[in-house]
Design a protein that fits this description.
alpha/beta, Protein-Tyrosine Phosphatase, Chain A, 187 residues
Length: 187
């Protein structure tokens, strides 16, 4: 089914919900994509802000997402709801909790790269709350290591997704600079 056809079906379902007296807010939540949703590699890797259970179901159905890498606090209610929704959908769910400023340890980055570069991984969504700092770090590591992007292009993409490059982001910048150095072989 084409994306246009899916949108028409979603609109028809929404209209039916409204006619039946359903909540417009519930419809909106179920039909919209998570904020900052975008393909990194179409059909393989996607990025976004946090995904509600309804949005995760949509991503599973329409984009074939079969695995989630959540960068949020595992004890937060929103994270628990997503984990439960993933379980119901049969979606693999991984958690690499990072603070909101995108700071990480070398072990965090190694775990992210191991998940992101797994050769037989199903279509994957990597996300944090807003889809900016933590997600930007994960995608930046992927771009550097797998796709061979230069650090300047990774930083441009970070900014395009809303990165504000504040002093509290020094750990994130340094992690990407180190990854760029390692990917270039020290050149």
């Amino acid at each position: 089914m084409s994306r246009f056809s899916r949108q028409r079906v979603a609109a028809a379902v929404a209209f039916a919900v409204l006619l039946a007296g359903g909540s417009g807010a519930a419809w909106w939540q179920a039909t919209r994509l998570p904020k900052r949703f975008a393909p990194v590699v179409e059909g393989r890797l996607y990025r976004s802000g946090e995904a509600s259970p309804a949005q995760l179901a949509r991503l599973h159905r329409e984009y074939g997402v079969r695995r989630v890498i959540c960068l949020l606090n595992p004890d937060a209610p929103v994270t628990q709801a997503e984990r439960d929704a993933a379980r119901r959908l049969g979606v693999e769910w991984h958690n690499v909790p990072l603070p909101g400023n995108g700071a990480s340890t070398p072990a965090d980055r190694e775990r992210l790269l191991a998940l992101l570069t797994e050769p037989n991984a199903p279509p994957t969504l990597v996300h944090c709350a807003a889809g900016v700092n933590r997600t930007g770090l994960a995608v930046g590591l992927y771009r550097l290591r797998v796709q061979g992007w230069p650090l300047a292009d990774v930083m441009k993409e970070l900014h395009a997704f809303g990165f504000e490059d504040e002093p509290q982001h020094e750990n994130l910048r340094q992690a990407l600079a180190e990854a760029a150095q390692a990917s270039s072989g020290g050149r």
